[in-house]
Amino acid sequence: MVTLTVTRSRVAAVRLAAADLLEAEGWDAYLNPLMNAIDRAAGYVPGSGAVDAEDTSLAVWDALAVQLGDQWPGDWERQPGRTQAEVLAALRGAAEAVAR
Predict the structure, then answer these.
(1) Does residue 3 carry a pLDDT above 60?
(2) Quick one: which of 26, 41, 67, 69 has the most CB atoms within 10 Å?
(3) Residue 15: closest CA among 55, 64, 54
(4) Distance CA 68, CA 7 (A)
(5) Is 44:5 a contact under the CB 8 Å cutoff?
(6) Could you tell me the pLDDT band of residue 50, with boundaries at 50, 70 and 90?
(7) Angstrom distance (rounded) from CA 50 to CA 32
(8) Helix, strand, or coil (residue 1)
(9) Burial environment of residue 79 by CB neighbours within 10 A (0 to 12, 13 to 18, 19 or more)
(10) How many C-beta atoms surround the C-beta of residue 15 within 10 A?
(11) What confidence score (pLDDT) does residue 28 get?
């Protein structure tokens, strides 16, 4: 069995790429949510993606939850009044925190 590890720099890069995707496409908590952008930035396709891409996607999600004060990102992004600017700032801020 092969054990894969996801580096901090990979997690940071995927967060930044997810933020860039959402900025370009427009974030929507239901139509273009965080998880979809994170999966795409990691290269993960649910059901057919590579194990390392899935591990990376999950690591990004977990680190984002920590950045949000242990809130589940899906609930956080669906809070009334949440803005795209807040979502992008959370992804980019989390990337900076991981890169340190």
Answers:
(1) no
(2) 41
(3) 64
(4) 20
(5) no
(6) confident
(7) 22
(8) coil
(9) exposed
(10) 29
(11) 97
Residue 61 and residue 87: Cα distance in Å, rounded? 13
The span from the CA of 53 to the CA of 64, in Å, is 16
pLDDT more than 90, % of the chain: 62
Note the pLDDT tens digit of each residue in 12-39: 999 999 999 999 999 999 999 999 999 9
pLDDT surpassing 80 at residue 6: no
Return d(Cα 75, Cα 11) in angstroms, integer.
21
Half-sphere exposure of 85 (CA within 13 A, CB side): 1
Residue 57, CB-side half-sphere exposure with 13 Å CA sphere:
19
Show me where the domains of the chain are located. 8-99
